[in-house]
């Protein structure tokens, strides 16, 4: 499993996280909810090595990876899809996907990775020669996730995948996320759309001011009056 044990983090004098703990079982799917500024993205960034944690430990499959370099964490199978559309717009869809194979670049055959991405996202296959900068917002999000899949993740960290997408695209995207989970990829999902996040998750954590305010089975959280009033609508 992926374990976060009482980590704390700050940006200068501003505290971002305080004693946050969570876990994602191998093959599981967990959501991390909360208002803007609650510390959700910082939690993902600490796990992936982008932001150093001041205290606490992070473990993956029993190994303490606290303080590891980002590339070592990715090589271990923890891959983050950051918020926004961080692509190379002048490169084609296929070229952007190839960049996801960097850690496995000595292996010449990446056919299975391409097949898996195109199976999840057929639209990317149709546009594989098109420059990424000309894709729609939904297609760019597909490409972001597809590029992460090329790195062969065991644990996939998704940061606001539905941001800026239409309701129809959100529904389609989360159907694919649920399918990836069924195929054995463990997922830690940060998402503003609490309703859809809880609907696909097994367990959930709610952050408030950098601390875990509530946690429990996703179904129980979705039925909790406090959670319902704050995140799902009264």
Report on the architecture of this protein:
The chain is of the alpha/beta class and 234 residues long. It is 38% helix and 26% strand. It is built from ten helices and ten strands. A hairpin with a 2-residue loop joins strand 1 and strand 2.
Work out the oligomeric state of the chains in this entry: single chain
Low-confidence stretches: none
Shape descriptor: globular
Distance between the termini: 35 Å
Helix count equals 10
Strand order of the largest sheet: 6-7-8-3-9-10
Helix percent band: 25-40%
Query: What summary fits the major beta sheet?
Result: 6 strands, mixed
Supply the helix-strand structural class: alpha/beta
Mean pLDDT: 92
Find the count of extended strands (DSSP E, 2+ residues): 10
Instruction: Give the SSE order as H and E letters.
Output: EEEHEEHEHHHHEHEHEEHH
Strand coverage percent: 25-35%
Radius of gyration: 17 Å
Layout of secondary structure:
Blueprint: E1 2-11, E2 14-24, E3 29-33, H1 40-48, E4 55-60, E5 63-64, H2 70-76, E6 78-81, H3 93-99, H4 111-120, H5 122-126, H6 137-149, E7 155-159, H7 167-182, E8 186-190, H8 194-200, E9 203-208, E10 211-217, H9 218-223, H10 225-232
Parallel strand pairs: 3-8, 3-9, 6-7, 7-8
Antiparallel strand pairs: 1-2, 1-4, 4-5, 9-10
Looking at this protein, list some descriptive labels.
single chain; 234 residues; alpha/beta; 6-stranded mixed beta sheet; 4-stranded antiparallel beta sheet; 10 helices; 26% strand
